[in-house]
Every structure is written in C-alpha cells, then in structure tokens.
Amino acid sequence: MPRRFTPALVFLIIANLVPLFGVFYFGWTVADILILYWLENLVVGALNIPKMWACTGNPIRKLFLSAFFAVHFGMFCWGHGMIITEIFSVHPDWRDGLMMGPFRWAIISLLISHSFSMMVNFFGRQEYAGRDVSTQMFLPYGRIAIMHVVVLIGGFLVDMLGSPIYALLLLIALKILIDMAAHRKEHRDKASPA
Length: 194
Fold this sequence. Notes:
mainly alpha, 7 helices, globular
C-alpha cells in the first residue's frame, strides 16, 4: 500500500498554502487567486511536453503531438483566462503585478512543486515506461477540466459573497483537496500494476 503523504504530495500541499499568505498579508481577492490557479495550468501544460518526449513513440510523432498539444492546450488555457478576466473584471498587469513580489513567489512555489513531482514520480519511478506519447498528451486535460469547473464555480460564489476570508479559505482548501486526489490517482494508476 503506498504512503499517504509522499514528499511530492507534501510539496504540492505546501505550494497550495502559499495563497493563504496572499489573502492574509497582501489582501488578495478571489480574482488574484483564480489568476494564480490559471497560471498553474500553464505550468502543468509546459511540464507535460518533456513528459511526452520521454514516452514511447517515434520522434516525428512526438514532435507533431507536442506541437499539437502546445497549441490546443494553450487555446484551452487562453479561453479559461478570458472567462476569468471577463467574469471577475480582472486585467493582470504582467510586469508590475503578476511577476513581482508575493505573486511571483506563489508562481515559483507551484513550479517547484510540479517540477519536483515530475522528477520524483514521472522520471524517478519511471512512470513513462511503456506509456504511449498520445496517452501522456491527454493526461493533463482531466485534471484541468475538473479544476476549471470547480474553481470557477467556487470563485463565482466567493465573488457573490464579497470575497470574505472564510470563503477564500474554503476555495483554497477545495483546490488543495482536488489537487491531492488528482495527484494520488495519477500516480496510483501507474503504480498499481507493478
């Protein structure tokens, strides 16, 4: 039976707790948190490309599917970004807002968390062994689709309530639970036959 809390899962939980500091110390709103979660989708998509290259399949096929994934997943994330900016009337300032101060550290923590999981689980436990590149290409979509629906609905409800602290905390807790479940399922599915 696998351990309940692996180092990669602990990293994931810690990275997901970073927005708490944003809420308590920097006055982040639901829009700020949703933008952060949207940026996390970009991290997940970017890290999926080296994963695809590690899987089985000829190089031409990998090149084609990687390019297709980058465009398709990018459009998927772009659409989600447009929904967030329209519903929550937020227009991120990439130079002075998102890439500076506490927001930058939140993004870096999520990047470290997902990179650590990729190195420890995907490459370290050789989860890529015997996995076809097309199978790997589709893996992020399930997690992202669930996240989009739950976080957007949660964000909409929090926004309707006026972004009270308890509702923001509930949204963060919901995101952590979804991430934990998705992480365990992804790595259990590969580990169970072994």
